[in-house]
Amino acid sequence: FLDCLPTPLLSFEALEEIVNLGLSVDDKEGQLRFLQDLLHHRLPREISYVTLYLASFLHTLCKAAESKEVSREGTPDTTNVPLTFALAAKVFTSNFLRPPVMTEEWRSNLLKAYQMVETLLRNAEEDRLWIGSK
Question: Model pTM greater than 0.90?
Fold first, then answer.
C-alpha cells in the first residue's frame, strides 16, 4: 500500500529541506531534531502516527534479525540476507522521503535521504519522536 501513496509519508518538501539545511549524513543528533520537529509540529497528526507505526515495525524487525544473527554466529547462513537497518532504509526510503520527480540532482542527494530514514528506523522507539500520550 505504501507504493500507492501519492506522496511520501514525510512529504516531498522534507527532502528538499534536508538538502537546504545541509544536514550531514553523520549528524545523527541534527537528524533526530529535524525528525522530531517534523513529526510533532509540521506533519498532519495522522501521517505522523502512520510514519511512527511503520518505523517502529521496521525497527522491531531489524532488531529481531540482529538477535537472530548473533545467536547464529558460529553457523552463518549464506542463503538468507538479514534485514539490517541500512537495508531497510534503502528499501523503504522512497516511502518516507522522495522528490516529486527524480533528477540527477536529486539522485546525488539520495544518501542524505537514506541516512535520514536509517536514523528514523534506528531511533523509532525513542520517546522524543513519539506523539500523543503514553
Answer: no
